[in-house]
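Example record used in the benchmark description.
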Amino acid sequence: MDILEKIVVDKKRELLLKKTVIPLKQLEASLLFQREPVSLANALRKSKTGVIAEHKRRSPSKSVINQNSSVQDIATGYMNAGACGMSVLTDTKYFGGSLDDLLIARAAVDFPLLRKEFIIDEYQIIEGRAFGADTVLLIAAILTRKQIKVLSELAKSLGLDVLLEVHNEEELVKSMMPSLDMLGVNNRNLKTFEVNLETSTALSHQIPDEFVKVSESGISSVSAINTLREFGYKGFLVGENFMKTTNPGESARQFIKQMAK
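Model output (C-alpha coordinates):
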Protein backbone atom coordinates (compact mmCIF):
# COMPACT_ATOMS: atom_id res chain seq x y z
CA MET A 1 0.00 0.00 0.00
CA ASP A 2 1.11 3.57 -0.64
CA ILE A 3 0.88 6.18 2.14
CA LEU A 4 -2.59 7.41 1.13
CA GLU A 5 -4.01 3.88 1.22
CA LYS A 6 -2.47 3.31 4.66
CA ILE A 7 -3.94 6.55 5.97
CA VAL A 8 -7.42 5.64 4.71
CA VAL A 9 -7.27 2.18 6.34
CA ASP A 10 -6.28 3.78 9.65
CA LYS A 11 -8.93 6.47 9.27
CA LYS A 12 -11.67 3.86 8.87
CA ARG A 13 -10.57 2.18 12.11
CA GLU A 14 -10.43 5.54 13.88
CA LEU A 15 -13.95 6.41 12.75
CA LEU A 16 -15.42 3.14 14.01
CA LEU A 17 -14.17 4.00 17.50
CA LYS A 18 -15.19 7.67 17.35
CA LYS A 19 -18.74 6.88 16.36
CA THR A 20 -19.19 4.68 19.43
CA VAL A 21 -17.74 7.32 21.78
CA ILE A 22 -19.26 10.55 20.41
CA PRO A 23 -22.63 10.15 18.62
CA LEU A 24 -23.73 12.61 15.94
CA LYS A 25 -26.38 14.14 18.21
CA GLN A 26 -23.68 15.14 20.67
CA LEU A 27 -21.67 16.86 17.91
CA GLU A 28 -24.77 18.66 16.63
CA ALA A 29 -25.51 19.93 20.15
CA SER A 30 -22.16 21.71 20.50
CA LEU A 31 -22.11 25.51 20.78
CA LEU A 32 -19.82 25.89 17.76
CA PHE A 33 -22.28 23.96 15.61
CA GLN A 34 -24.59 26.98 15.86
CA ARG A 35 -21.83 29.44 14.87
CA GLU A 36 -22.04 31.20 11.49
CA PRO A 37 -19.07 30.04 9.37
CA VAL A 38 -16.82 32.57 7.60
CA SER A 39 -16.25 31.91 3.89
CA LEU A 40 -12.64 31.19 2.94
CA ALA A 41 -13.54 31.33 -0.76
CA ASN A 42 -14.89 34.87 -0.39
CA ALA A 43 -11.84 35.92 1.61
CA LEU A 44 -9.55 34.64 -1.15
CA ARG A 45 -11.55 36.42 -3.86
CA LYS A 46 -11.13 39.75 -2.06
CA SER A 47 -7.54 39.27 -0.85
CA LYS A 48 -4.39 40.84 -2.28
CA THR A 49 -2.22 38.07 -0.81
CA GLY A 50 -4.28 34.85 -0.91
CA VAL A 51 -2.09 33.16 1.69
CA ILE A 52 -3.61 30.27 3.62
CA ALA A 53 -1.12 29.61 6.41
CA GLU A 54 -0.91 26.09 7.79
CA HIS A 55 -0.40 24.56 11.21
CA LYS A 56 1.43 21.26 10.79
CA ARG A 57 3.60 19.55 13.41
CA ARG A 58 4.97 16.76 11.26
CA SER A 59 4.34 14.85 8.04
CA PRO A 60 5.18 11.44 6.58
CA SER A 61 7.65 13.10 4.21
CA LYS A 62 9.40 15.49 6.61
CA SER A 63 9.00 13.79 10.00
CA VAL A 64 9.10 16.48 12.72
CA ILE A 65 8.52 20.04 11.49
CA ASN A 66 7.57 21.91 14.65
CA GLN A 67 6.46 20.27 17.88
CA ASN A 68 7.05 23.24 20.17
CA SER A 69 4.98 26.21 19.03
CA SER A 70 1.60 27.00 20.60
CA VAL A 71 -1.43 26.60 18.33
CA GLN A 72 -2.96 29.72 19.86
CA ASP A 73 0.18 31.79 19.22
CA ILE A 74 0.48 30.51 15.66
CA ALA A 75 -3.17 31.19 14.85
CA THR A 76 -2.99 34.71 16.27
CA GLY A 77 0.31 35.31 14.49
CA TYR A 78 -1.07 34.18 11.15
CA MET A 79 -4.17 36.35 11.48
CA ASN A 80 -2.15 39.42 12.50
CA ALA A 81 0.28 38.75 9.63
CA GLY A 82 -2.54 39.24 7.14
CA ALA A 83 -3.17 35.64 6.08
CA CYS A 84 -6.60 34.97 4.52
CA GLY A 85 -7.15 31.93 6.66
CA MET A 86 -5.49 29.04 8.45
CA SER A 87 -5.29 25.36 7.62
CA VAL A 88 -5.30 23.10 10.68
CA LEU A 89 -4.23 19.48 10.29
CA THR A 90 -6.32 17.28 12.57
CA ASP A 91 -4.86 13.86 11.72
CA THR A 92 -2.92 12.52 14.72
CA LYS A 93 -1.04 9.42 13.57
CA TYR A 94 0.67 10.84 10.49
CA PHE A 95 0.67 14.61 11.10
CA GLY A 96 0.61 15.00 14.89
CA GLY A 97 -2.54 17.13 14.83
CA SER A 98 -5.86 16.85 16.62
CA LEU A 99 -9.35 18.29 16.81
CA ASP A 100 -8.18 20.13 19.92
CA ASP A 101 -5.83 22.12 17.66
CA LEU A 102 -8.84 23.22 15.63
CA LEU A 103 -10.77 24.08 18.78
CA ILE A 104 -7.88 26.14 20.21
CA ALA A 105 -7.37 27.98 16.93
CA ARG A 106 -11.12 28.74 16.75
CA ALA A 107 -11.04 30.24 20.25
CA ALA A 108 -8.07 32.42 19.31
CA VAL A 109 -9.09 33.87 15.92
CA ASP A 110 -12.13 34.87 13.89
CA PHE A 111 -10.79 34.41 10.36
CA PRO A 112 -11.55 31.32 8.23
CA LEU A 113 -10.26 27.94 9.43
CA LEU A 114 -9.83 24.99 7.09
CA ARG A 115 -10.00 21.56 8.62
CA LYS A 116 -7.32 19.60 6.78
CA GLU A 117 -8.17 15.95 7.21
CA PHE A 118 -8.59 12.73 5.24
CA ILE A 119 -12.37 12.88 5.04
CA ILE A 120 -14.10 9.70 3.94
CA ASP A 121 -17.34 9.85 5.95
CA GLU A 122 -20.21 12.27 6.61
CA TYR A 123 -19.43 12.02 10.32
CA GLN A 124 -16.19 13.97 9.74
CA ILE A 125 -18.04 16.84 8.04
CA ILE A 126 -20.36 17.24 11.03
CA GLU A 127 -17.39 16.81 13.38
CA GLY A 128 -15.50 19.61 11.63
CA ARG A 129 -18.52 21.91 11.93
CA ALA A 130 -18.84 21.09 15.64
CA PHE A 131 -15.18 21.95 16.29
CA GLY A 132 -15.26 25.32 14.56
CA ALA A 133 -14.18 24.72 10.96
CA ASP A 134 -15.35 27.09 8.23
CA THR A 135 -14.05 24.97 5.35
CA VAL A 136 -13.46 21.26 4.84
CA LEU A 137 -10.96 19.58 2.56
CA LEU A 138 -11.96 16.72 0.29
CA ILE A 139 -9.23 14.73 -1.46
CA ALA A 140 -10.19 13.39 -4.87
CA ALA A 141 -7.54 10.66 -4.73
CA ILE A 142 -9.36 8.83 -1.92
CA LEU A 143 -12.98 9.47 -2.95
CA THR A 144 -15.31 8.43 -5.77
CA ARG A 145 -17.34 11.05 -7.61
CA LYS A 146 -20.44 9.91 -5.72
CA GLN A 147 -18.66 10.32 -2.38
CA ILE A 148 -17.45 13.79 -3.35
CA LYS A 149 -21.03 14.77 -4.24
CA VAL A 150 -22.53 13.43 -1.01
CA LEU A 151 -19.85 14.93 1.24
CA SER A 152 -19.69 18.31 -0.49
CA GLU A 153 -23.46 18.71 -0.53
CA LEU A 154 -23.63 17.90 3.17
CA ALA A 155 -20.91 20.47 3.88
CA LYS A 156 -22.76 23.12 1.89
CA SER A 157 -26.02 22.34 3.72
CA LEU A 158 -24.15 23.09 6.97
CA GLY A 159 -22.82 26.41 5.67
CA LEU A 160 -19.27 25.19 5.14
CA ASP A 161 -17.03 25.96 2.18
CA VAL A 162 -15.53 23.01 0.31
CA LEU A 163 -11.96 22.83 -0.99
CA LEU A 164 -11.51 19.86 -3.32
CA GLU A 165 -7.91 18.75 -3.78
CA VAL A 166 -6.63 17.12 -6.97
CA HIS A 167 -3.23 15.90 -8.14
CA ASN A 168 -3.81 15.27 -11.84
CA GLU A 169 -6.19 15.74 -14.77
CA GLU A 170 -8.09 12.50 -14.15
CA GLU A 171 -8.97 13.54 -10.58
CA LEU A 172 -9.95 17.01 -11.75
CA VAL A 173 -12.30 15.78 -14.48
CA LYS A 174 -14.12 13.35 -12.16
CA SER A 175 -14.52 15.92 -9.39
CA MET A 176 -15.94 19.14 -10.81
CA MET A 177 -19.47 19.83 -9.56
CA PRO A 178 -21.54 22.82 -8.33
CA SER A 179 -21.21 21.92 -4.63
CA LEU A 180 -17.50 22.86 -4.60
CA ASP A 181 -16.21 26.35 -3.82
CA MET A 182 -12.49 25.95 -4.38
CA LEU A 183 -10.36 23.60 -6.45
CA GLY A 184 -6.94 22.99 -4.99
CA VAL A 185 -4.05 21.54 -6.96
CA ASN A 186 -1.58 19.73 -4.74
CA ASN A 187 1.92 20.06 -6.18
CA ARG A 188 3.11 17.16 -4.02
CA ASN A 189 2.78 13.65 -5.41
CA LEU A 190 1.37 11.83 -2.38
CA LYS A 191 2.86 8.55 -3.55
CA THR A 192 6.45 9.77 -4.09
CA PHE A 193 6.30 13.07 -2.11
CA GLU A 194 8.06 14.87 -4.97
CA VAL A 195 6.96 18.50 -5.39
CA ASN A 196 6.54 20.25 -8.74
CA LEU A 197 4.76 23.61 -9.15
CA GLU A 198 4.19 22.77 -12.81
CA THR A 199 1.34 20.54 -11.62
CA SER A 200 -0.58 23.72 -10.78
CA THR A 201 0.29 25.55 -13.98
CA ALA A 202 -0.53 22.53 -16.16
CA LEU A 203 -4.02 22.06 -14.67
CA SER A 204 -4.92 25.74 -14.32
CA HIS A 205 -6.58 26.11 -17.74
CA GLN A 206 -8.91 23.18 -17.04
CA ILE A 207 -10.38 24.73 -13.90
CA PRO A 208 -13.48 26.85 -14.67
CA ASP A 209 -13.47 30.42 -13.34
CA GLU A 210 -16.49 29.69 -11.14
CA PHE A 211 -14.14 27.92 -8.72
CA VAL A 212 -11.47 29.70 -6.69
CA LYS A 213 -8.13 28.21 -7.72
CA VAL A 214 -5.81 27.21 -4.87
CA SER A 215 -2.24 25.94 -5.21
CA GLU A 216 -0.98 23.69 -2.43
CA SER A 217 2.46 22.44 -1.31
CA GLY A 218 5.97 23.50 -2.22
CA ILE A 219 5.25 27.23 -2.15
CA SER A 220 8.21 28.87 -0.45
CA SER A 221 8.78 32.14 -2.29
CA VAL A 222 6.92 35.26 -3.36
CA SER A 223 8.14 34.70 -6.93
CA ALA A 224 6.39 31.31 -7.00
CA ILE A 225 3.12 32.98 -5.96
CA ASN A 226 3.55 35.71 -8.58
CA THR A 227 4.00 33.03 -11.24
CA LEU A 228 0.94 31.12 -10.07
CA ARG A 229 -1.18 34.30 -10.08
CA GLU A 230 -0.58 34.55 -13.82
CA PHE A 231 -2.37 31.21 -14.14
CA GLY A 232 -5.43 32.44 -12.25
CA TYR A 233 -4.62 31.18 -8.74
CA LYS A 234 -6.04 33.23 -5.87
CA GLY A 235 -5.17 30.95 -2.96
CA PHE A 236 -1.76 29.68 -1.86
CA LEU A 237 -1.42 27.12 0.92
CA VAL A 238 1.88 27.69 2.73
CA GLY A 239 2.77 25.38 5.58
CA GLU A 240 6.27 24.08 6.07
CA ASN A 241 7.86 27.35 4.99
CA PHE A 242 6.38 29.00 8.10
CA MET A 243 6.18 26.05 10.49
CA LYS A 244 9.86 25.09 10.18
CA THR A 245 10.83 28.39 11.85
CA THR A 246 10.78 29.21 15.57
CA ASN A 247 8.07 31.84 15.07
CA PRO A 248 5.65 30.85 12.29
CA GLY A 249 3.49 33.95 12.75
CA GLU A 250 6.45 36.28 12.31
CA SER A 251 7.66 34.27 9.31
CA ALA A 252 4.22 34.68 7.75
CA ARG A 253 4.29 38.41 8.47
CA GLN A 254 7.67 38.85 6.76
CA PHE A 255 6.55 36.74 3.79
CA ILE A 256 3.31 38.67 3.30
CA LYS A 257 5.19 41.96 3.74
CA GLN A 258 7.42 40.97 0.82
CA MET A 259 4.33 40.36 -1.30
CA ALA A 260 3.31 44.00 -0.87
CA LYS A 261 6.58 45.30 -2.39
